[in-house]
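Hi all, a correction to my earlier message: I attached the wrong file for Pyrimidine-nucleoside phosphorylase. Here's the right sequence:
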Amino acid sequence: MTYRMVDLIQKKRDGGAFSKSEIDWMIENYVNGTVPDYQMSALAMAIYFKGMTTQETAYLTMAMVHSGKEFDLSTISGIKVDKHSTGGVGDKVTLILAPLVASFGVPVAKMSGRGLGHTGGTLDKLESIPGFKFEKTEEEFIKQVKETGIAIIGQSDELVKADKLLYALRDVTATVDIIPLIASSVMSKKIAAGSDAILLDVTVGDGAFMKSVDDARLLAQTMVDLGKSVGRETVAVITNMSQPLGFAIGNRNEMTEAVNTLQGNAPKEFQVFIAELAQIMLQLAGLEKSITEILEHFNNGLAYKKFVEMVKAQGGDPYAFEQLTAPLKVKYQVDIHAKASGFISEEKALGIGLLAMKLGAGRATKADEIDFEAGVTLTKKVGDRVEVGELIASLYSNREITDELVAEFNDSLVISDQQIEQKEIIEIIR
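and the right structure:
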């Protein structure tokens, strides 16, 4: 059936709900160029103000899935699991979680993205390993998962063509932060990528896209329902991103923290958080393991061994880890010391993430070059006791670190008399 785009824009502007046929027509004709950007922009803004029903969101998700190639992972034995994070500061979870889960014999077929702005990208961190390649064809991707049990590659341009076009448009028309469009964007990619089960890490707080738990819960439930509606076992965890995750923010220093964690050399609280996520992914694959059993794979070397297998399979030099875990090589380093005694009560993730970007660790635009050595390393986290003059962080950059940048870090830090406890996993949505 043929429609007029102007009529559909008006329908949504006036609060109407689209049929499957209408959404399929819009997406097909947007991808083939019949519907121009200016009309799709108008529609995105109408959706921003009027929203979409659950059924409309499901129709949109599947229309985007069908706009490009869909990976078929059926020749890989077992239940294939995938994981997606809505992004944050210091989020190196995939680097640790994926090999940890794969070390239990569960195939992990993961497509990841780059960072933009204050949020870090898994691919950027992996590129700090000399020789690491993330471009693979579908056949190469499947072959690697069959042989090693794990692959982390870049998002294929052939998948979900509509999302690539629509996201770029939303990014420049102030229509990114609307739950139906976020959910359909995320889930169309996850569904098209072909895994059987999906863990969604929905971050919430100062450094996350969702600022309130209520909004995060709504997004999580929408995505879980979308996954289940097409036969994918899907679970979401709402995790705290009010402070950076872990102690390292940047690329090589986050890679270093990931390697140390895989080798069992990280704070117990951080290891347990990763193990709790791993437990959910293993359950999705039909494997019940206790947190103690999962933590043992950090200590006995199995998680790290699986990581090294993946790095070798993707052209990286696993013997470069001595260099990888060496001190950061930068022109400028500034150590920041506590100006008062007390407890760290706030380390604002957004402010620290933006600072790391300005130091060179992130991109303000997609064309910006990443400095793998730049970043921030924390020595204290929320709830920790500090004494005046004690080291609390170090800033690293090959750009001059000005007083203004130091002030930005200090503005992101609050020391008070009150000790605050924060938990990483706020809620699980099934």
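Sorry for the mix-up. DSSP finds 17 helices and 13 strands in the chain.
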